[in-house]
Amino acid sequence: MTWIHPISAEVEETAEVLGGKALGLVVLRRLGLPVPPGFVISTEACRTFLRTGGLPSGLDAELAAAVDGLEAATHRRLGGPQRPLAVSVRSGGSVSMPGMMSTVLNLGLTTEATTTLADETGDLRFALDSRLRFLTSFASEVAGVGPESLAGIDRALAGQDTDTSRLAEAIQDVEQLIAERSGASVPEDATRQLELAVEAVFSSWNTPRAKTYRELHGIPHDLGTAVTVQAMVFGNRDQRSGTGVAFSRDPNTGEHVPFGEALFGRQGEDVVSGSSLTEPLSELADREPEVWTRLLSALTRLEENYRDACYVEFTFEAGELWILQVRRGRFVGRAAVRVAVDLADAGTIGRDEALLRVSPQHLTHVRTPRITAIEPRDLFTRGLGASPGVAVGRVATTADSAARLAAGGPVVLLRPETSPLDMHGLAAAAGVVTARGGPTSHAAVVARSMGKPAVVGAANLTVDAADGCVRAGGRTLPEGTLIALDGTGGEVVVGEPRIDASSTDPQLHRLLGWADDVTGDRTTGRNEAERLASAQAALRRTGDRAES
């Protein structure tokens, strides 16, 4: 049994072995796009670990050999006293489960390696910031330190203006939290750090949040996750560095324009967590035009390869772009319809395939409801519309209260930001509002995947979970107050407003015309989902006959 595979264009294993994330990296390599070197530990190793409680026999030797190869490729040494190598350790199941499992960044930055990195770069602040980021992810994902404990670490620590003495104090604080929680200090042996991180990623497959996500999306529980290990690219290196996420098309409308957000001087977790104020993706065009040009070229090549809208995560260090992840966009509702029709019009796919790509369930979200005639006295707060639609429900300030209150009727979950730990609340809620984050934050991505309205980045919103209330614009609403949100316009209003869902969609009209051409059925009275489902059934019957 081979447990570890390189991330290279020659790899032939499938997503069932490599996981979807690593397979995407293989595709990127085949297309000649920039990918940090690395390797992947297979899903079979995870299944063995979950079955036996330990890493499989022979994995240690393969892991040592894979690290040797990575060191040779980068001319660095993991945790080494000279030219230290740091790596990311990420989960990746065969079916994407965004944000549900563990990630550890900057692994290998031991105390000695951090000092060496500071000497090598001449930037002590960068080295300490990177060490702190490693420790906080290690504390959360490996040592089991809860988010409430880590919340005491000032969010501003990752900022470019944080002085080195404060960073050093924060490092000591996190090291103490880890020692108190686990009874042991963080290993100064980078190989041991890696082993512990791999075990943590494997174990995260069975966390309650991951199980909840799989149950909601019909994903089998016995698949296991792969572990992707790659050389770090430092988005926090300087102001010509950064990170971001991008869709090749707008996930809210399906329009063929790049969509996403970026952060300068930060690492990827700051974007996807929603904990930081992001810049629009187009900001790259002004600040890093070469990165912008290369990113647009990559998105075009990926759309041509996948014949679909795509999503990527990227980092750039000192003006050099690296792609860290790619997957299909997985749009829903109006956006899914528009992409299918536009791709058919462009000749990228045929009309039959366009019909098969749109789920009948998507059509329930196509005629996007909007809140109309908002009275100023009713407007509670405003943010960024991140997932179209209108949700009406009672205020819930925690995931637990959302799950509890949902037994009595619809709820809207309001949080400073969401994390995978909020998964059960997101599942229970009719919609979500966050004070922080952008249109590709955790709350936005999960809400879109569930077809639930979302508003993010409501900057004047304060969520006081201890007192069970929310505040904005001088008003305080206790839990249980009825509110509504518009996931297109970004408004959050008090009470139950007037809602208009009568808008027509020209792309839907054309798609359903193609559906009627397939069935030959022009009778009136059938609803849109029935028309699409009938066409899909006819196309599948034709396909079955062709194969027999």
UniProtKB/TrEMBL annotation:
<dbReference type="Pfam" id="PF00391">
    <property type="entry name" value="PEP-utilizers"/>
</dbReference>
<dbReference type="InterPro" id="IPR002192">
    <property type="entry name" value="PPDK_AMP/ATP-bd"/>
</dbReference>
<dbReference type="InterPro" id="IPR010121">
    <property type="entry name" value="Pyruvate_phosphate_dikinase"/>
</dbReference>
<dbReference type="GO" id="GO:0050242">
    <property type="term" value="F:pyruvate, phosphate dikinase activity"/>
</dbReference>
<keyword id="KW-0670">Pyruvate</keyword>
<dbReference type="InterPro" id="IPR013815">
    <property type="entry name" value="ATP_grasp_subdomain_1"/>
</dbReference>
<keyword id="KW-0808">Transferase</keyword>
<dbReference type="InterPro" id="IPR018274">
    <property type="entry name" value="PEP_util_AS"/>
</dbReference>
<dbReference type="InterPro" id="IPR036637">
    <property type="entry name" value="Phosphohistidine_dom_sf"/>
</dbReference>
<dbReference type="InterPro" id="IPR008279">
    <property type="entry name" value="PEP-util_enz_mobile_dom"/>
</dbReference>
<feature type="domain" description="PEP-utilising enzyme mobile">
    <location>
        <begin position="410"/>
        <end position="490"/>
    </location>
</feature>
<keyword id="KW-0418">Kinase</keyword>
<protein>
    <submittedName>
        <fullName>Pyruvate phosphate dikinase</fullName>
    </submittedName>
</protein>
<dbReference type="GO" id="GO:0016301">
    <property type="term" value="F:kinase activity"/>
</dbReference>
<dbReference type="GO" id="GO:0005524">
    <property type="term" value="F:ATP binding"/>
</dbReference>
<feature type="domain" description="Pyruvate phosphate dikinase AMP/ATP-binding">
    <location>
        <begin position="56"/>
        <end position="275"/>
    </location>
</feature>
<dbReference type="Pfam" id="PF01326">
    <property type="entry name" value="PPDK_N"/>
</dbReference>
